[in-house]
Amino acid sequence: MALDFTPIMMIFGASTFILIMFLPALLELKKPKDAGPRRIMDEVIESQSKLKIASIESEVDFDQALVKKVSEIIAALPNLEV
After folding, report:
1. 49 or 7, which is more confident?
2. How far apart are CA 15 and CA 7, in angstroms?
3. Minimal CA–CA distance to 48: which of 56, 37, 60?
4. What is the structure's pLDDT at 9?
């Protein structure tokens, strides 16, 4: 009665091969190296919103300066009738 180790060695070899193939992916899932696309997109959206706020603030400053000049001109109009 001879022992045949071929099926045992095939199972052991296949499981070792699968472990070696998927070990980097499993380690990466456990401790990812980067924050991933969600984190990056959050930063992009945040920077875009800051740019929009800055452009709106500059428009408001321009509008306030324009309103001040127009109000000075309108205030001077009644004095022209003299």
Report:
1. 7
2. 12
3. 56
4. 92
Name the one residue in this structure whose structure tokens are 């800055």: 54
Q: Is the pTM of this model over 0.85?
A: no
Phi, psi torsion values for 3, nearest 5 degrees: -80, 130
The amino acid at 27: L
| Residue 46: both structure tokens together | 């945040």
pLDDT over 80 at 73, yes or no: no
Please tell me the number of Cα atoms within 13 Å of 66 on its side-chain side. 6
Cα distances from 3 to residues 8, 10, 15, 81, in angstroms, run 11, 15, 21, 121
Q: Rounded to whole angstroms, what are the CA distances from 22 to 10, 18, 31, 63, 73? A: 18, 6, 14, 61, 76
